[in-house]
# Entry
Amino acid sequence: MTEKTANVQVHSKIEGPIEQHSMLHRSLLFAELSSISYYDEPIAKGLAEVVGFEGCRFFDRDGAQAFMFWNDHDCVVACRGTEPNEWNDIRADVNAVAVLTETFGRVHKGFMQEVDDLWPMLEDALVENRKTLWFAGHSLGGAMATICAGRCYLSEIESMPKALYTYGSPRVGDKRFVNFVELDHSRWVNNNDIVTRVPPAWMGYRHAGKELYLDRNGDIKDVNGWTRTYDGLKGFLLGLLKFKIDHFSDHSIDRYVEYIKKAVPEQAEETTTTVDLPASSPEVVAAQAVAANLEAAHLENVMAEADQVKPE
# Structure
């Protein structure tokens, strides 16, 4: 029997320090690393090498997961987002009805529990790091990366995060948490991505960082108010014409990669690598689609129940 293979296009190829590249090039890079984090370790390692990271380490404790990628110049921690077969990921989404106090504010209890599982291992690995440090993540991974980047300021780690890049991230904590660290945070939002709307603001949750909004056509736009509402409605109606629920499909990390790539000027020639996916491994695209639906459904339940508890 012939093994399944997948043609995976990798658009980023890093040469030299990440800091030397433009914000859009960095955004594409971290979006691709966030996507790569959904793969099993051997495949992720091979794809990371194509991008320009010879080092790769996988962290996994009780379903909370992250990758660390590094080369001669940089170290990147990419937290893995929601997986359809991981109960802990789903439980983290549902736990928005309770918040717990961090030293620097109050945060979503479920997200913090995921970080509590991983942080001792990450902290040990980062203590000796002398490379420029970056954090990234998609979905739940974006929330985890946000908390991890903040915790660096409370630990004995010498290398503080240079910047944080998140994609389709939910709100993580209250105003005090958001304002605790003046971190360079680029927060990407794709049109109607439903996960970026929860937990609700009326519970006290706030978004952090600088929002970079992708409109219904996948273009970067600075829109607010009724213009934003109109763009979201148009995107939803266009999705229905394609028999898709825009709020779910807009959450896909592949969609973020596609649209950010379109915005990068003079994008280098694509490098395509073919990887062998073992028959026992789920196809990543399908896994992310299921994950987005699971996450959205559970977070909608949270919105219905969340009036019981608010951040203090």
